[in-house]
Amino acid sequence: MEKTVFKNVTKQKLYDITLESANSKDKEIYIFEKWNMWDLVWYEDAEKLRKVFLKNNIKVKQITNEENLISFSDNKEFIEEVMSMRYVPQNKFFIDYEILIFDDIVAVYDTKELLVIKNERYARIQKSVFMNYRNNWKEISIDKK
């Protein structure tokens, strides 16, 4: 199992791992969502990344503890065609870190640290955990700005 820990995470590091996920060979990524991406990278860069997800037809499945989401992007096509959000109450599953799962990579991060684990079996287990939670909760819509 290959793992890398980055201390003092920069917006560039978070941008890079997100860009890597936007080129996922599996065409699908899973996110335990703690923050909006634009809180972690610059808004303009987040919009560029959303265009890459859209261009590459990468589906983004997210679980969040936020029941009411306000639109975080001007890219309506991205929100309608790429995003799928489910709400899980904090008392059922508390999301304390952002967790990004794609291909054979699991990235766990907050604004200070980034842990990247590259292992096919571990990623497969995390995808299974994600889907088990996701399948038990309701889809939520993202309100327009």
Account of the protein in words:
- This protein has 145 residues and is α/β, with parallel strands linked by helices.
- The protein has one domain: Endonuclease, Chain A (2-Layer Sandwich).
- 34% of the residues lie in helices and 31% in strands.
- It has 5 helices and 10 strands, in the order βαβααββαββββαββ.
- The protein has helices at 11-21, 37-40, 43-55, 76-81, 120-134; strands at residues 2-7, 28-33, 59-64, 69-70, 83-87, 98-102, 105-109, 113-118, 139-140, 142-143.
- The strands form 2 sheets. An 8-stranded mixed sheet has the order 1-8-7-6-2-3-5-9, sandwiched between helices. Strands 4-10 form a two-stranded parallel sheet.
- A hairpin with a 2-residue loop joins strand 6 and strand 7.
- Helix 1 (11-21) runs parallel beside helix 3 (43-55).
- The longest helix is centred in the last third of the chain and has 15 residues, at 120-134.
- It is globular and about 35 Å long.
- The protein starts with a strand and ends with a strand.
- The relative contact order is 0.24.
- The model has no long low-confidence stretch (mean pLDDT 85).
